[in-house]
Each structure stands twice: as C-alpha cells, then as structure tokens.
Amino acid sequence: MPxxxxxQKNPDxxxxxxxxxxxxxxxxxxxxxxxxxxxxxESTKPLGLxxxxxxRLRRNxxxxxxxxxxxxxxxxxxxxxxxxxxxxHVRSSAEAAAAKAPxxxxxxxxxxxxxxxxxxxxxxPPSWSHPFxxxxxxxxxxxxxxxxxxxxxxxxIIAVAIAxxxxxxxxxxSGYYGGAIDSIIMRIADVFFAFPYILFVLLIMSVxxxxxxxxxxxxxxxxxxxxxxxVRGQILSVKSMEYVEAARAQGAxxxxxIFRHVLPNSMAPVYxxxxxxxxxxxxxxxxxxxxxxxxQPPNSSWGLMISDSVNYxxxxxxxWLLFPSLALVTTVFGFISFGNxxxxxxxxxxxx
Amino acid sequence: MAExxxxxxxxxxxxxxxxxxxxxxxxxxxxxxxxxTIGIVGESGSGKTVAALSLMGLxxxxxxxxxxxxxxxxxxxxxxxxxxxxRGVRGNDIAMIFQDPMTSLNPxxxxxxxxxxxxxxHQSKSKREAWxxxxxxxxxxxxxxxxxRVDQYPFEFSGGMRQRAMIAMAISxxxxxLIADEPTTALDVTIQAQIxxxxxEMQAQFDSGVILITHDLGVIAEISDKVMVMYGGxxxxxxxxxxxxxxxxxxxxxxxxxxLPRLDATEKARLTPIKGQPPNLITLPEGCxxxxxxxxxxxxxxxxxxxxxxxGPEHGVNCWIxxxxxxxxxxxxxxxxxxxx
Lengths: 352, 341
Known about the structure:
Number of helices of chain A: 15
Helix content of chain A: 55-70%
Strand content of chain A: under 5%
Order of helices and strands of chain A: HHHHHHHHHHHHHHH
Number of strands of chain B: 12
Oligomer: heterodimer
Radius of gyration of chain A: 29 Å
Strand content of chain B: 15-25%
Shape of chain B: globular
Largest interface: A-B, 20 and 29 residues
Structural class of chain A: mainly alpha
Largest sheet of chain B: 8 strands, mixed
Strand order of the largest sheet of chain B: 6-7-8-3-9-10-12-11
Distance between the termini of chain B: 40 Å
C-alpha cells in the first residue's frame, strides 16, 4: 500500500517504480516503422571517398600501426621544432642543465659535449640518467635521436612537397596536352629514373653545395618524376571522361578543366605515393648523411649517428648504432605500411 | 517567321586517321528557328553526334576537322571564331545535354557547384549568387528538395535526377540553342517520359531552339517539329515530323519506320530489321551511302549523290528513285498500308 502522506511531502519519490523508464526508452517508443525507416536510411546512406577509405583502413591493423608511428614521430618532430631554437646555442652540459626547459622532450642539449660522460672516448652505455647512453663526445644519444626526428620529418615533408608540386604541375600538362610536350616531359622523367638514385643526389648536392636546405632540394627535385608519371597516367584515363567534355561544352578553359575537373579525379593514387615517398625521402636523407654529404655535424641526423657509431662498433658501443637505426627503421616502416594500407583501402577492386 | 538561330549549310566533318579519311559528316544543311525542335535520327555512326560537336567546336583536332560548310549562329560565323570567342559561345549561346548522365557529372564536385560553374563563367555573377541560382534551376527542372540537393555530390543522385541536373546545367545561361545528345537513351522508360516533359517545359519557358539527337523515333514523334534523317554522314530526308512519319520518301526512312514495334501487330509478328551492316565510313561510295542495303537500289545510286528533291511542304529527300515510283513502292510496304478498317 503506497504511503500517500509521504508522497505529498516528496512528490518526486518513485511510488510506482516508473523512474526506470529512461530517455532512451522514450525515444524507442516512437512508431516502429518510423524508427525502422530511419535506420534503413542511415545504413544505406552512401559514404564519401574518405569515409569509405577510413572504414576499410580501420580493419587493416598494420596500416593503423603505421599511422600511429607516423603520428608519434610527427609529434616529436613538431615539439622539437618549436622548442629547439631556444637551445641552439647552449653548448656545455652545465648550461644545458640550467636551460632545460619544461615541455622540451630531449632531456639534454643534444649538442652539449661532456668528456666526463665519455670514458676513454668511447661513450657510456645506457644508464638511468642517459637511457640511450652517450656517444664519444659524451653527448646524450636519446636527445640526439629526438632532435634528429625533427630533421627526418622536415626532410620527408619538405622534399616530398617539392617533388609533389613539380609532379602536379608537369604531370597534368604532360597528360592533358599530349603530343610533343608530353614526349619531352616524359623523356626527361625517364632520364631521372635511369640515373642511379644516390649518384644523382650526390651530383645535385655537389652542384648546390652542402647544407641543410640543399638536402631537401636535392631529394625533392629527384622525386618529381614519380609523381609526374602517376598523375599523367591518371589524367590520360580521366581526360576522356564524359564530364570533362561536358565541362568543355560549358565553355570552361583548359586550366579550369585541368585543375578543377581532371586533377581532383586523379588524386587517389597520388596520396598513396606521397605516404610512400615520405618514407623513401627519410631513408635517402639517412643514406646521404651516412655518406657525409647530408646533414652536417654538429647537427644530428639518424644517418649521421649511424655513420659515427660504425667506427666505434668494434669497441662494443652497440647503443649508438641501435637506437638511431631503430628510429629510422620504425619511421620508414610506419610510412610504408600506412601507404600500403591506404593503397588497398582506396582500391575499389579490392572489395571486402 | 520566328527568329533564325542557326543556319548550317554544307557541313562536312572528316577524321584523318591512319586507316584513311573517315567522312563522319558529309554536306549536312539545316536551319533552326527560335522555339523549334529539330530531331536528328539515324543509327550509330550516322554522324549525328559529330554534327552536333562540330557546332560546339568540340571536334578533337587532330584527327578531326570541319573541312567545309558555313555555320552561322545568328549572323556570327562559328567557323571563323577564335578559341576564346568559341569558349564564350559554349554553354552561353549553345549548350549541350549529354547522353549518359551517370558519367557526365564530375564525381568529386558538388552538383550545385557544377551548375554554378557555367553561370560564373559566362555571367558576371558572384559565386554566392551563382550558387543561389543553381538551387533555383534545380527546382525549376523539377528536382524535389532542390535546396538540399544542390549541396550533394552526383553519387547521391539517381539517373533521372542526374539528367535533370544536366538539363539545369545546360539551361543555366539561357542558351539560344540547346543540343540534346540522346538525352533519354541511358534512362528507364518512365524516367525518359519525365525528362522529355522537363525538356519540353524548359524549351517553352526559355524559347530556345532545340536539336534533339536520338535513334528513338518515339521521342522524336513526341517533341520534334522537324526531323532530319541521317545515314552514313548524309542527310537522306528532311521535313516536318508528320511528313516524315506519314509521307516518308526515302527507303532508309521506310526501313526505320518499319523496324518499329507496333501495337497492332499480331502475336507472332517479328520485328523487321534493315538488312545488312552499317556502312564503313572510310570506304563510303561517292553516291548514296545507303546503296548497299537499299532494296530498291539502281545503277546510278552508287556513283552520284542525288540532289535534294522537294516532295512536300519543307520536305526534302535525296533519292534517285523518281517520285512516282517511290510512292508506288511505298504503297506496297506493309507498314504504310492502311490498316484494314
């Protein structure tokens, strides 16, 4: 028997046990056919290219791992870029310790030389204060690895941006106009392909001179042929589409047709190539630095660190070979596996 | 007489290929007046589409070239125009509706943007204004939820909706001449009827001249005022729609009409095809291209192209068979026999 007096005092009290009817229950209390129709509409709604790609990419675990690696290294790279300048001139370990700023990932100044940390000039193995050990000048390997991430990311992005820009200008011109222009551009691309890659970069570097920016330019200039070829091939098939003719029948000019109608429909394989090319550019930078014509000391780069460490390997200094190599391999693996996943995800023929 | 929009005479468009010269269009003439619809009929490869593309200046060169003829738009000569002037004509004075709405919209561009593009290209309108007009145009061609649809991509549209969008694109700059290249071929019959209605309405509203290219005589009968029958790049017969359907004079036209399925046919009746193959456009005879398939051919047919003969009001035919004989021959054809009362 409900207690009526009690209810008067406290009208919110749940005398009939109806409070368990939640908002969700109320929503579902609508007419069934209405709910059903909505659900059907929701499930049959076509997805756009990117939503569809993401849906398929999500199932590819290797590609997701790659994406995770890319994000982590990009974050490290951008944090280092933002905070590095403040520490540029700090040279000694004491100064570095004093200047150690919060939010800066590298625990020490990567360029600070401290012979106390390098007994017999062979560096010190990993310890709690230097988790990746120190090198022959007593520099902290972890800090140098982290700061090298910045260089690697910059090379990857800037070099590929240069290559992509050239490819996206020359490829469409070549594919759309055809004829003599096409032959000339594509023969030049063939020359770029025919040359041994490292040798060609060496050549360009020796012409431009050594230097930070020249590494970007050399790797970038070499990459254009890949993009130009991909874009050209795409455009050859897209330009004969009826909507291109329809655009022409509307009175659109060549430039508008190329950049508004043809190019946007040719981009899917380009995104894949970009992901792959970034990994490739990072590996090339490492190779150049290893050969001594890339990034110059005291700046740090994974390739440079590997090159330094190799001479001391006989003395058992595994740590300054292992960590930069791991960083390099992981990054390149990240970009390549993400690129691979992206290719599978954008390929309409590979339906699940 | 209504204003004359187009005056085409002796249009010849050839394609110079490795295999030889393809005479796709060979001495075609016609005029189009305001508010008029001309249907061009003929089988695949008869030169219908090439004739239309020649008007638009869209023949791929090389290998194609308009080798002869005067193409007058009003009193402007389309053949002597520069590329820039031609771009100003396309979409603005002459617009085109393409055959396959599934492939003639850019898949990565919003429908509204594609319609707005033509407006921005030819009229000094802001993008915002063009976008608003795109929505209005879509509503005008009978698109439900036009203001929502304008913001969608082509893949969210059905075939009929896409063709409506194509029509909206074509009429966006109020063109004098509207060329519809088989606008209903890729659509269901029910949608075809809707699209024809839309086109008829738009023509009435904008008072433009329409060139309707099709191989569907049903569509022609429905909306054309005049009909031009093409075969092997030549006009074989030309006239008002009723003349062509009820007083046809060319054996090819007879063949076309006879090949139509009939409502009053008996159950076992078979369709009547035109025997033989479409002609090879490289090895066309000097004379009538239909000679090889014509059941009534004569010795002179192959070697010389007959002059146009006037056989009725605005009704011309190019055939070597004398008029009296033609009428007699036609009376023998089952298709033209009066149905038994």
